[in-house]
Amino acid sequence: xNIDTITCHNVYNYGASLQAYALQHYLESLGHDVKIIDxxxxxxxxxxxxxxxxxxxxxxxxxxxxPPLKYFLVPLKEHxxxxxxxxxxxxxxxxxxxxxxxxxxTRRYETSDELRQDPPKANVYVAGSDxxxxxxxxxxxxPGYYLDFGTAKKISYAASFAISxxxxxxxxxxxxxxxxxxxxxxxxxxxxxxxxxxxxxxxRQVMDPVFLLDRTEWSSLAKExxxxxxxxxxxxxxYDFLYDExxxxxxxxxxxxxxxxxxxxxxxQSLPYADKxxxxxxxxxxxxxxxxxDTVACSSFHATAFSLIFQKPFYVFPLKNQxxxxxxxxxxxxIHHSERFKAEETLDSFDYSLVNTILxxxxxxxxxxxxxxxxx
Length: 376
What we know:
This protein is of the alpha/beta class. The protein has 14 helices and twelve strands.
């Protein structure tokens, strides 16, 4: 069967790339011909574009009126963003290499209108995971992420609203868009509540796509990573998007207690308290760094997920000034370890045997739901 998925697959985010790969790879393992729809709307084109301007801002309007000005004004106004871009340019190359080698893409689409005018050909469309329906961001306001195109059967797998509720102004839009789906599954329990409020009573909760592949498969992929010459279990790994002082405080306590250096894998900026900053890691390196860490401290859903897969002690914090922590909280509640969320002191390691049992059952049910949705 020909299956096309859509998700945030090429936004230079570790979790986004790896969950897109996981769903593609798992469906291929079932014998399907799978492509990821290469949907790149305007708001996903800024990460490594030195002259990108956000629509609606004064700078955008000025440069639109006189285009040559962008080559002077954008570097002047966005110098901090450009500095971080240059510092982490190596990770762009690593991400582009991963996308080229591991993700099977359709032609490029930049707008929902393009998808409607020339939709990819498939038997089934799958709206995949990550924050594709988050109406507090541009993702959840974009019809393309709701499969608003083509005539193939439409289902979702582990789609995420990422927030605990959607604003009233966006409820009619979301309800109308989802009315075309044959089956809906979401990643969080909070997503089920949102859907119930909109009148969708038969949705299912499933695990994130990264859990569809087992530890052996991820470990095999991690072996293709760049070698940083690190000692196995010889560092505390930090993955912190926004330099959160809470993570810094706790990580220093862990490092002192264990007598280990702090290593930071960076998205935007280096962390001044880390003993080693890695600015050129791609998705493969991200996997390897988690697999070989002693402990992980993060503000990331997928760093938490891979800590579970590789059975590492971990601590997770919500992103500062963001309203998207329900995905972390739901995952920790699933494994009965909510104490790992926003911890202020070091905690004892927990027994992974019970966690693995819980995960195994949830993953099995998730696979059954996905295969059932595709067949029905």
